[in-house]
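1st attempt posting a full record on here, be nice pls
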Amino acid sequence: MSFSQYSDDPGRASYHAGAAGRDSSSEFTRLTQSASSNVQKITSNVSQVQRMVNQLGTAQDTHELRDKLHQMQHYTNQLAKDTNKYLKDLSNLPNPSSQSEQRQRKMQRERLTNDFSTALNNFQTVQRRAAEKERESVSRARANSGLPPVSNASTSPNPFDDDVRTGDGQLIALDGRVKTSDALKVTDQQGVLPTDQGGSSMTAQMMEEESNLEMIRERETNIRQLEADIMDVNSIFKDLATMVHEQGEMIDSIEANVENAAIHVESGNQQLRQASDYQKKSRRKLCILLIVLLIVGAVVALILYFTLKK
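the predicted structure (as tokens):
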């Protein structure tokens, strides 16, 4: 047997089709398990993020808390992206030939999509709350540092340029260098340079201001990252809406096939009932005919009997 003949063998083609079906089934199981596990992790992470967000602006608000919060948010955002990919891969899997298995997969996808959508909505809600608290914190810090509010950022100097003017007019570079304009050189009325004590006080003040500016820059960076994460979640919601729409069309097709099959089954049942009724009527007619023949035979027999007896 040649290779082409071997390849065209119907039995071998059927084997490959069965293997492909098994591969599709195992891949569907793997993807659903991965997506379900991620949804559970997202739900758990949202609860932890919510607790940490509630601590912002309180006595428990620390640098370590904010670092942990941002790490948890970034991790949860990545889980959401991975889950979205799993659901897309599920939608792209070939449909099984069995209609019952198609319905089973459809229900699993719907349940996963709904659970993921709920978890994602809760995550976005807590993200927005975290961003709101971060903005409030930055606004307070900017006010305490004498910087313009964020709403005036477009018409005011950028606080994260190379040099930042603080409330008292002193220029502080973010790299730690201190600049002083000629008009603001610190001298006493006799033109004498400040004492060591005064210099130490000024140095401490500048270090505190620099620390505040660094904190503001870090928190505004966190806000931008939060906003980017929120945009990612919005994009995932759009993907979910598209998948739900496509699944709806596929479900309509499946339901149409099921409805057609049901119509054919009902038609077959009706034909069977008609055939059964016809058989019953035929049997009834046959019974009546037999009874009539028996009666006629009995009458003929009686007539012959009495005739011969005479």
